[in-house]
Amino acid sequence: MLPSEFPIKQVRATYPALADGHAYLDGAAGTQVPTPVIDAIATAYRSGLGNVGGAFPASHRSDAIVGACRAAVADLVGGDARGVILGPNMTTLTYRLSKALAGPGDEVVVSRLDHDANVRPWTQTGATVRWAEVDPVTGELPVEQYADLVNERTRVVAVSAASNILGTRPDVAAIAEIAHAAGALMYVDGVHATPHGPVDMRALGADLYATSAYKWSGPHIGAVIADPALLETLRPDKLASSTDEVPERFETGTSPFADFDGVTAAVDHLAAMVPGTGSRRERLLTSMAAIEAYEQDLFAVLIEGLETMPHVTTYGKPARRTATAYFNVAGHTPRQVAERLAKLGVNVWHGHNYAWELTAALGIRDTGGAVRAGLVHYNDRSDVDRLLEGVARLG
């Protein structure tokens, strides 16, 4: 499907929030939710839910919801439903898993490209930390450096599949080849990558792949997907009374079952974005490829428009990137730019956006970071035009 054939009008009609007339270019921080997801969550609550493992129908409904949610997330990323860990968000799950994966005596490799949620949990394990550096001009994460960073003591290599501010898509598979050759595990932060194109965690070489449903039209739920055999070898902190089964041993407390139903609905929504046939996994690959092509076509207009304005500085020129722009406007702080655009009905984020190490490498963390405008599949040309018109006025 050509980008021009993407059914953007039909897609936008499924998102009630878009009716307020704002240009939602803040998707990199969290997307709006379509009607099927809202309906699924409401229906789950109306139907009656109980905690899992009980003898009564409301509990059985929760059991089914959890199983369906694991299967849906596995289909989205190409993983195994038996290895899908569900939780409140990627940060919480990464902290939980980092303690089970690394500690004193180990080494971990983290990168300056990553969101802090895939950096700080590893640096706080007590393991020796080695840093992969970013090219501050291109925004690329050179693969070659990993040959010097990874050794027989490396337990985990943590890396992002896409930068949440520059959109950089590093060669994760090549990094994984180096890591696996040394016997290390790959923990891949797919939070920003997953909404913007097809994902195959096995092709990436990810031993553990993290994602957040609220970045791809779902509720605020996080997930980490791994081979269940790997999870069997890990012993997280847990209550003595809670199950030791995998993946449940990594999930603490009572889960938000209705939200899990919303996650499944979000995956089904993505799978039906464009016409397709076959299994849900096959339909997802078709839909996500169409989403990627559409977003890249629209992003070309956005980034070219910004780069032609003399009063705008953009950051990063990676060879492969998501539809995410990070920029500053001369004479205005990032916050001032965001406030001016908000008055024009354009929603953008400003600041470091938790890319703590990367904004320091770019030399802008201590001066307020920059402005981030990110496209997702429900944005259209009018959103881009309004952003460019608003930024042009600031010149």
Automatic annotation (TrEMBL):
Q: Name one Pfam family in it.
A: Aminotran_5
InterPro entries the UniProt entry points to: Aminotrans_V_dom (IPR000192), Cys_dSase-rel (IPR011340), PyrdxlP-dep_Trfase (IPR015424), PyrdxlP-dep_Trfase_major (IPR015421), PyrdxlP-dep_Trfase_small (IPR015422)
Which residue intervals define the domain Aminotransferase class V in the entry? 24-387
PANTHER family, sorted: CYSTEINE DESULFURASE, PYRIDOXAL PHOSPHATE (PLP)-DEPENDENT ASPARTATE AMINOTRANSFERASE SUPERFAMILY
NCBIfam families on file: am_tr_V_VC1184 (TIGR01976)
Q: What is this protein called?
A: Cysteine desulfurase family protein, VC1184 subfamily
Question: What organism is recorded for this protein?
Answer: Nonomuraea maritima
